[in-house]
């Protein structure tokens, strides 16, 4: 029974734990700030499409023993995802769905590059969360948000998913006592903070969202400094999940309270 469970788990659930956060966070923020039935349908379809990534990788991989099971899960996931996507499209306008269509194109490119074994390239790592961020923009547009406000939410999410891969890579290099590569992480974090500050000044993003980005920026500068404490890969990953939740809940509270 245990062997069977592990067999199905290895096919049904993606192994990249960091991907769960980058998928769930934008969907959570979209639904927390602008819940609609259409948005929920889009979020459900997106999660199922995310789960379908693992069976696709197995089908194109070397493990032939798992291919039959992978094919079954792929059909189940994609059929259900397509069902939810169609329902979403029936309930919303083309304007609201436009970011979703863009996300589908971006995810198609990501899947191709992933199957070609380019998934560890930094620009490829950013493509997947960028696509989910676009879907979050569709969620809030479906609730009647203005284009500026929806764009602000997308950029707020980008302030999380763009600097994070740079930071995690740089942090792990330091933990492994390798040559540091901190420049991209520090620049992208600082740039994100300045961008969200300007958007907050213009009233496009909430100040509490800026606070969350400030926490992320502080994490980057301290985490790559001599003040950092030695951490395992697992500990770094768990803390990143926490920081993602800080962004979601602080930003959601900012939208709710108007601050």
Can you give me a brief rundown of this structure?
By secondary structure, this protein is mainly alpha-helical. Helices cover 80% and strands 0% of the residues.
Overview of the structural elements:
By secondary structure, this protein is an all-alpha fold. The protein folds into two domains: 1-145, no CATH class; 146-259, no CATH class. 80% of the residues lie in helices and 0% in strands. The protein contains eleven helices and no strands. Helix 8 runs antiparallel to helix 9 (183-201) and helix 8 packs antiparallel against helix 11. The radius of gyration is 19 Å and the shape is flat.
Key attributes of the depicted protein:
flat, 11 helices, mainly alpha
Q: Which overall shape is indicated by the principal axes computed on the Cα atoms?
A: flat
Domain count, please report it. Answer: 2
Q: What does the radius of gyration come to? A: 19 Å
* Strand percentage: under 5%
Total strand segments: 0
| Order of SSEs | HHHHHHHHHHH
Through-space gap between termini: 52 Å
- Percentage of residues assigned to helices: over 70%
Taking pLDDT < 50 over at least 5 consecutive residues as the criterion, the unreliable ranges are none
Outline the biggest β-sheet: none
Helix-strand category: mainly alpha
Mean pLDDT: 93
Number of contiguous helices: 11
